[in-house]
């Protein structure tokens, strides 16, 4: 009687395999196997894994996402004026993107130094539309007429609109 958990040799001849599922030996089984070769099986497995990896990357990183233009805001027609120590630049904001956005209420003017200001008349800029009479006001005094002023308005989507104007 052979041990059912070991691979044993019988008198130096062919091996006797453990009794598993009622098979005592491998005598009746042909040594020639039929089916898919190991190389073909590996190639198929690699192809399936590559397809799965591309699909997972597409879902995770948006490789197959449809590109769309988010809100792209441009500031136009900056007309700046000074009243006392307050400099006000009035502009029109145009959204060239496909999403609405809005002003945040913060802006900055630069004339040598950057001065933080506030937005008046701001609001939502519709996709493909514009918003008129937006003002960026900051405490910048002592400017001469003809001075060049640059500024920036911040949007709710993280974008910024830059502008350049001349003091009237």
Q: What does this entry show, briefly?
A:
With 168 residues, the protein is mainly β. It has one helix at residues 38-61; strands at residues 8-9, 15-16, 73-83, 86-95, 101-111, 113-120, 124-125, 130-138, 148-155, 160-167. Helices cover 14% and strands 42% of the residues.
Tell me the CATH superfamily of the domain at 73-167.
PCu(A)C copper chaperone
Integer-rounded radius of gyration? 38 Å
Give the overall form: rod-shaped
Structural class: mainly beta
Beta-strand share of residues: 35-45%
Order of helices and strands: EEHEEEEEEEE
> How far apart, in Å, are the first and last alpha carbons?
111 Å
Biggest β-sheet, characterized? 7 strands, mixed, barrel
For this structure, what is the CATH class of the domain at 73-167?
Mainly Beta
- CATH fold naming of the domain at 73-167: Immunoglobulin-like
What topology, given as strand order, has the largest sheet?
3-4-8-6-5-9-10
What integer is the average pLDDT?
81
Tally of helical runs: 1
Number of strands: 10
- Low-pLDDT segments, ≥5 res: none
Under the CATH scheme, which architecture of the domain at 73-167 would be assigned?
Sandwich
Which percent bin holds the helix content? 10-25%
Annotate the secondary structure layout:
Blueprint lengths: L7 E2 L5 E2 L21 H24 L11 E11 L2 E10 L5 E11 L1 E8 L3 E2 L4 E9 L9 E8 L4 E8 L1
Parallel strand pairs: 3-10
Antiparallel strand pairs: 1-2, 3-4, 4-8, 5-6, 5-7, 5-9, 6-8, 9-10
